[in-house]
Amino acid sequence: MIESAAQLEGSPADGSPPRVRPHLVPASASGAATVKPASKTDGVIARPRLLEQLDRAGRVALVSGPAGAGKTSLLRSWLDQSGLASAAAWLPIGREERDPQRFWSSVLDALRRTDAGSRLLRDVSTAGEPDGCAIVERLLAATASLEDRLWLVIDDVDELRSTEALDQLELLLAHAGGDFRFALATRHDVSLGLHRIRLEGQLTELRATDLRFTLDEAQTLFERAGVDVPESALAVLVERTEGWAAGLRLAALSLAGHPEPDRFAAEFSGTERVVADYLLAEVLARQPDEVRRLLLSTSILDRISTPLADRLTGRLGSRRILQELEQANAFVVSLDASRSSFRYHGLFADLLRLELERTEPEIVPELHRTAAAWSEKQGYVIEAVRHAQAAEDWGLAVRILSDHWHDLVLDGKEAAGCELLTGFPNARVTSDPELAALVAAGESMRGSFEDAERHLALSEQGLASLDAERRERLEVMLAVQRLTLARRRGDVPALLEHMERLIGPGGASETLVASEELRAVALITLGMARVWVQQPAEAEHHLEQALALARRIEQPYLEIAALGHLAMAASHRSAAEAAGRSREALELAERHGWRDEAVVAAAGTALATVHLWQAHLAEAERWLARGERALRASSEPTTEAALQLGRAMLEIARGRDREALTACRGGERLAELLVPGHPVHLESRGLLLHALVRFGETARFEDALADLGQAQRESGPVCTALAAMRLEKNDPEAATAALRPFLGNPPAGGNPVWTVVALLLEAEARDALGDLGAAERALERALDRAEPDRLVWPFLLCSPSDLLERHSRYRSAHGALISEIQGLLAGSEPSSSPVGPEPLWEPLSESETRVLRYLPSNLSAQEIAGELLLSVHTVKTHIRHVYAKLGVHARADAVERARAAGLLAAAWRAR
Fold first, then answer.
1. Which partner from 505, 732, 868, 890 sits 20 to 30 angstroms from 436, CA to CA?
2. Which three-class secondary structure state does DSSP give residue 154?
3. pTM for this entry
4. Number of folded domains in the chain?
């Protein structure tokens, strides 16, 4: 039969919480219909992992688990499969056994039914009324000469309620000699001095977690029940039952002949009739009123905090009851080391909620309101809103969510906050201006900018209906949402306007305590926008201010956001600094559990970009994937477009032009969400044009170029693509004309990659025109620009193999870089030196850097002086300074240290 659950005896006379007293109830005496699985499910289930542990058991084996965990069937199958059935005396304890004489009489009867036990009892006198102490004394004396192994298996030992009998049994367990062994099945630990046996290494324990059925074991159980169920449905059932044997058996009964097993598994819960009948009859109906009240009142909670349980029940003592229920394996699980937080087994929780709704539906809303108030006070905002929604107290739910929305964002829980919005009725949105503003925030995060604008306008229309305090709070939220929306659309003029309204003189946040946080948010938002419109100096100014403020007010979420966008801004100036800022942001995010949250997307994108530029393709792909994961629930079109551009660059570097074209189109679609003319759109269009050139799509190239104005055609991404197409059509003159505006006046904050690309295309065009000197100068300038940050990707785009081969014969300052690029173009793997190296003791001057670039060559100091038009003395002085700043004493060490610091390209070695 399936084991019953725990019962709690009546409350003590002193009014303290009742003590947990688990017991078994025979099916015939339960007074209610007892669910018993069909005989097929009572067959032996192979559980090798548990049987092996029992085979290796010491003197005492303890099997402890909740009702229906399969303790009895496990022990029976072990005895059968191990060939021990004839050497095992099986003793089931009756309900609440309190008579020690009856207990010991039963022990002797069980032993006599085995051959070894019969031989043992020849020397044990049992005449007259059995005396426990005398029997134990004689058994101990007899076991000393026991030759055959003998097991005494006591099932439901927790039902033994006689202190006298327990003391006598403890003595027998501790001192039995020979090969006399014991197996105990219990729903909770009993006072038998097992800790001493454990210290001796003679106690083998199987607990509730060990008894949970695995997927393979559940499959065997269902096969024995004659039920064929898909593996996907079975996995769901194992998860929902938490491997509870009785739950799986009951599910098997219900599933027999069911036409839709997957749907049944998805919907299976403690409200299923056979499960509910079992739990009601064998668990809940047997609890004292106070314990039943605790179970039902706290069933509305996913995580049961004992102070909240006291609040819901209106009396103290919840912690002790829950701890004792857990000890009794009564479907209660502790969630922390101090055992002050608990949860109910999923099926049991379902049953409790069903019973609460059936018996006392009128108290459910008030329980949820009480839980909402307590949760908000403790800072559990999401739980507080959910309880208010469950109570259908929409005003309370909106008030809590609105008051704490900013906190959710700063805690990295904006996505969870947006999910809560789905729990409000649609009709409420039009009548509640605060809820309309929250809905606008959710739509902005999902990229539904038009819907966000509509709900912001709706919220603004309802401002007058609020009292002064609520109106002021809503004005702040509206200002923040307008600011965020302008940032996501890349609308810098609108962003500046909303920023002034938020943190300017007399701004919306002037009287609020959180004004420093809002100022940091506004500064980060402005810095982010300036990063994307290629104003890195202004962006760094705002972001550095925000970073200092975030650190002062101890807001790590804002600190990560500032660092990530500082990395983006620095990438146009220093790859090493960008990588350093990125890593700082990512490490901080790891420490706070925000590994894949939207706040890390910028840092991940910046690091992926630097890896791409330096042709570390595997690392670049890893960080691109990390950035995409971080933005799975949040719309940041600029960052998403940058990720798509990065993926296109990755495919170009790998020579997969079709995949690059697909990624470019994805970037184009994202760029369309931004304001017209946004630089990200030009980057997307330029890379798309380059992909079309590589793919040979001349007609589509001209179509994509047609809708761009003259100013846009002169941007780096577009003019280089145009030059590449003109070279493809053997028109080098037109190529140089296309490049002239950009190279004549390159943008101050532009992407350095396009400058290198433009110089490489200029070199190719000049070479095609027969101007070899101009070609060499343009290539040397490209190498000059590429060397400090190791910008290798432009060479993979343009593939100037012949030019590099010829150039390497001249006295270039970039011999190592040329060698590495040639290796990459020949199909070699790029070097895997880390991005963002160890900083120098002191930065090199421009002149020292120029000298450093010649050190990897074989040129002497005098020859270097001739190349740089400097005196030998000056060159030697620069070399000494370089050695000092690099912390080395020899030329070879200086080259190695400079490469590690990213000041020189890593040397390429043919493989």
1. 505
2. strand
3. 0.66
4. 2
